[in-house]
């Protein structure tokens, strides 16, 4: 038997605990990091009607519950109807926003791929 034909046993892969980064990716740096505030403001600028509808829903619900507690059922019923209308407005705003984003073809991610070396400037 020659030593060329003998297969060397493969080393088992190193054990990684859940959530541990593989050694090949130790120098990996995320392309862009955004905090909650930046993401939120970006989404509000894309579709400002959604937060407006959410606020209107919350106000109508709060006022309706206050009127219900006071025993003013007609005003409470009116506010609950307004709440349903505000919710419908919010859902409609979400659907229209998704349709516009789909028509633009913008998924929110940059079209450029990140540079292989994070210290290198993208061209």
From TrEMBL:
Q: Which Pfam families match?
A: HIG_1_N
Would you tell me the Gene Ontology cellular component terms? Answer: mitochondrial membrane
Q: What are the record keywords, sorted?
A: Membrane, Transmembrane, Transmembrane helix
Q: What biological-process GO terms show up in the record?
A: mitochondrial respirasome assembly
Query: What residue stretches are annotated with the HIG1 domain?
Result: 21-112
* Keyword Ion transport attributed: no
- Database matches in InterPro entries: Hypoxia_induced_domain, RCF1
Predominant localisation class: mitochondrion
Stretches the record annotates as Disordered: 104-123
Q: Which residues cross the membrane?
A: 49-68, 80-100
Cellular compartments annotated: Mitochondrion membrane
Protein name (database record): Putative HIG1 domain family member 2A, mitochondrial-like
Q: Which organism is it from?
A: Stichopus japonicus
Q: What is the lineage of its organism?
A: Eukaryota, Metazoa, Echinodermata, Eleutherozoa, Echinozoa
